[in-house]
């Protein structure tokens, strides 16, 4: 065997060796993609179908420190009003641009969808998505 060849017999032979070497980075990449992109979109789609329509009033917005491609992470404290239920407060984390964040000043009213099983799971919903889902007039 020449010095340029890699001995993969310790990893289960040449056929299996490539999976042992490349497998962990592929699995880690999939896990990161799942929790950062796929799962939030699945939750958004699920709440569009099964969520309870609510209105939120911005109490406080903080953050704007961490950046992701020019957007910043904000924490928005909301008073949530669900028809027929008592008003409660929760905090929503949202990544958005600076100019979009100007819409969330204290006192602003925002359409929301709330998870019927866990009222702490709240999604800020685009008005066009609410119209498509038939949740808003």
How would you characterize the overall build of this protein?
It is a single chain. 35% of the residues lie in helices and 34% in strands. It is of the alpha+beta class. It has a 5-stranded antiparallel β-sheet. It starts with 13 loop residues before the first helix and ends with a helix. The mean pLDDT is 78.
Which structural class do you get from the secondary structure elements?
A: alpha+beta
In the predicted model, the low-confidence regions spanning at least 5 consecutive residues are none
Principal-axis shape: globular
State the helicity in percent bands: 25-40%
User: Termini separation (Å)?
Assistant: 73 Å
Main sheet, how many strands, which sense, barrel? 5 strands, antiparallel
Number of strands: 5
Physical arrangement of strands within the biggest beta sheet: 3-2-1-4-5
* Mean pLDDT over the residues: 78
How much strand?
25-35%
Taken in chain order, the helices and strands follow as HEEEHEEH
Based on CA atoms alone, the radius of gyration comes out at 23 Å
Q: Please count the helical segments.
A: 3
